[in-house]
Amino acid sequence: MSLESILLVASGGLVLGALYALMAAGLAVVWTTLGIFNFAHGAFIALGAYIGWQIAHPDAAGLGLAAGFVGATAAMFALGVLFHLALVGPFMRKEGIVAASVITTLAGAAIIESGISLVWGPRSKQLEPLGAGEARLGPVTLSQNDLMLILIVAAILLGVGWFLARSRTGRAMRAVAQNREAAELMGLDAPRLYAAAFGLSAAMAGLAGLFIGSIRFMTPTMGADPLMKALIVVILGGVARFTSPVYAALIVGMTEAFSTYFLGLYWTPAVLFGLMIVVLVAKPEGLFGRKQRTL
Hints:
72% helix, 3% strand
């Protein structure tokens, strides 16, 4: 295997890692803040891609890719808030919230996927690429679409990390994640912050769907595989810090890229699940995790 081949595979792994980091970070926001797993996250990914297509594509509204990204992000944030208020929020103070959230988010995912099929039909669609042509970085040649994807995702993750660490709302979300009762005694509105966390998670999922739609064909069920990869990333990295799933996503992306190259596409899921099982046995809180929940 030549150095050029290694660098080419590694660049593909970096693209996958960037996508997985965006998906897993959004999933981790809900888990750390609310303590539940959102099974509708994959459906959010698909819905964000289709809303972006409706706004951006010449066969629909034709407003351009930038408008599609902005419109889909805003729409997904609002839909995430509504999703929480309708399907998760009513159960937050009741016993069995974890089981109830599994049922409601799975039901929500089914409704969203069926709605996508009804509105846009079952035929596959695709967004325009983020850039045309190629970009050469030393010995590595990347498509401009892949390079733009990596740079934009990095900027998004840095922005979300700054929001959670520095902004008033972000610090309030972290406080509620650590101790809801103490946070409420300090005057924080926990239900509003939970809804904001769900909205942020949905917006990040929608952005991930837009990026996926620019490199692959879109279908109503396109979020199923990304949801599985995001789950693997969250389990591998843990959720002690916002950066934990980001680091784990890079590991998963590189592992998937090199496993596909050396072992083939069909063996790659087995490698990823094997890696996940080893980490669960050796370090259940994740490679970069601690034993308490916090952002």
